[in-house]
Amino acid sequence: MNYMPGTASLIEDIDKKHLVLLRDGRTLIGFLRSIDQFANLVLHQTVERIHVGKKYGDIPRGIFVVRGENVVLLGEIDLEKENDTPLQQVSIEEILEEQRVEQQTKLEAEKLKVQALKDRGLSIPRADTLDEY
Amino acid sequence: MFRYESLEDCPLDEDEDAFQGLGEEDEEIDQFNDDTFGSGAVDDDWQEAHERLAELEEKLPVAVNEHTGNGERDEMDLLGDHEENLAERLSKMVIENELEDPAIMRAVQTRPVLQPQPGSLNSSIWDGSEVLRRIRGPLLAQEMPTVSVLEYALPQRPPQGPEDDRDLSERALPRRSTSPIIGSPPVRAVPIGTPPKQMAVPSFNQQILCPKPVHVRPPMPPRYPAPYGERMSPNQICSVPNSSLLGHPFPPSVPPVLSPLQRAQLLGGAQLQPGRMSPSQFARVPGFVGSPLAAMNPKLLQGRVGQMLPPAPGFRAFFSAPPSATPPPQQHPPGPGPHLQNLRSQAPMFRPDTTHLHPQHRRLLHQRQQQNRNQHRNLNGAGDRGSHRSSHQDHLRKDPYANLMLQREKDWVSKIQMMQLQSTDPYLDDFYYQNYFEKLEKLSAAEEMQGDGPKKERTKLITPQVAKLEHAYKPVQFEGSLGKLTVSSVNNPRKMIDAVVTSRSEDDETKEKQVRDKRRKTLVIIEKTYSLLLDVEDYERRYLLSLEEERPALMDERKHKICSMYDNLRGKLPGQERPSDGPFVSDHVYPKREENGLPVFSFLSTEQAADIPSRTTAQTTSLLLIKKVLPCLLSPFSLLLYHLPSMTVTSLLQQLMNLPQSAAAPAPSNPHLTAVLQNKFGLSLLLILLSRGEDLQSSDSATESTQNNQWTEVMFMATRELLRIPQAALAKPISIPTNLVSLFSRYVDRQKLNLLETKLQRVPYLTKVGTLEVYDCGWGGGDKT
Q: What ipTM was reported for this prediction?
């Protein structure tokens, strides 16, 4: 079917439900409506899915236009199997709360780590701060 | 100046009256000044006016603030606390707290969360319409601007029936206020780079040239029957005449519908009709940005040399058999009829700079289009389609938003992608992939050999190798311009300096080099010799100053130096056996050593000295050109010559007269000798030699007979020549030896002697002598004149 094996072309993915992972870590699920040569995407009826542990929550977002360079990966969702997951869907508030908690624990762990390193005279620059400069 | 509550209050028509009224009211007071600074000044902030206007719009949708949970905000707005509200609104644009996120809030409102049904589009999360309808009420007025308008449009649009081939060209383009600026490029209603929309209809082009704020939608092109649920791209349309071969159910009577753009391209731009074809046409079909611009360029740039390829790669019919042998492309085909033929003939030719599609790729593209069409045709009940496909089709049918992206646009994207696969050197650009596929193919070939099973069709990525063309940069020339306009781009950066490269040929360069080297060498040798000369002169002084014992040593050194000088003069390079060619010495040494050379000869020993004149005489012909210098050398030469033995004299004479050593039959005229005689130096030399010889003869009577014979011969030659040459041609010798007459008288009879005397009569000295002689000889007659 694919007349250009080895290439990545999104033409056949149009009008199908996709899961898109962005560079900032967000996960979007939506119908791919349009593309261009830079792999900019137009997602329709998009939902942002937040995963924390085994739970996830969906935030409906509407139409997304994603710049191609920000896409890490995307894949088609099999509509029949899409709910066949061990994950548990929760409400938005809950998932947001969970996310916040997760962030917090992560930050604290990071802080401890940095402190421990500092005590030993080492310093590892944070990856996210590197990006800024 | 005038306070208005709303736009409607602006008295557009009453302007004139109002101003007139103002003027009439009070002429003394400066109205403008008063309005600005005086009592009439109205401190009306335009921002406030704007706010008020905004309020009017906000009033329409019902708004409730979720934050505060009440209508406080609305009241505040109405009260007119503009600035604070503005700041708040702005801050709301940036949502940090998720609780402020309208999407989340909206979603929260939709509790309880319904279980999404598998595979169904009607889950509450997905069905935005229901959600929106429910939560319309509690939403903020301020939040509205952040939410796209379309979302509100969604619920209102009734779900459309299975209209896959819905006319999506109804998508209205936003209104653009445009003003035609003379001389500026044509205003594009559609920005460059947007995917192709649809074909332009000729009647529409007029609009673009004079763009107006109101956008006029293009009329619909004739629709094709329903089975083809997609736009017919020009590619497909072009293929229509040939489609009968493939069993296209398309009525063959329908002529290919081509936009004027395509037609113009096909005809190579030859038939440019005013009003029909314009650059703005391309605005309508921006999808073919590559080719139309390429087509336009040849028109714009008249100076462009090279073939104007009818750049219609996208319009080639590829459904037919592989392209036949290609006749050279015709630039101006007679009409639209045979244009397809022309196109097909273009097939294998393509611009290697990858702005056009490789034919293989194009073929694939068309095949795929065909496949898609077939798919749509066999929507229901194709046996080979799996359940997956059927469900997919099902969804597509039910999905009202399907096919938002037109097939044409998809083709456009895939065309770009295929173009990117073209490379001039696949192994360079994509080494690992090429190798990988080679291995795969080898494996499969091996398998096939063994198994002999059905040949699986191996889909291979086609990375066609595009030939690399050397593009000679031809500077772009604009028609109608004065002078040269510089246009620089990444491919032809501008010249910084107008430097012209003057490259000489190899031979010339080497010759020049040789000459230069020789001169240098000569100069070096001259320098050395001169320094040696100075040293030798110094020896005299040292000799006097030094003690007895050291004198022999000094003498030896002196000798040695003289030898080296001599060698230098001979052109003998240190380390070489043979002296280098004479001309080197003669041409360069003597001219340069006018003053310096003279003392040298005095130091040279006899045999050394003899050699030099001999070599000089041997090269006299070449020296004859250098007339100025040689006379200076005459005096030292004469000194030398007067000390020469007879043998050398004879040989010298012979050399001078260019006689072979062994006696040969004398030629009637000797050109060499003639030249010598005509030259001052030569003549002088000759005469000196002769006199010397005479001296020798007269003094030394015991010479050998052979020598004598030779001498006689030489003498005869000389005299003969002297007689032969007319007097006028004879050069004036610098000095004439005194004993010449006696010399001549010995060999020549009186008559000839007379002639000789007359010839040499220029020198009064000789004449006197001659006359005296004549008298003595008893010539009768009167005075000699």
A: 0.84
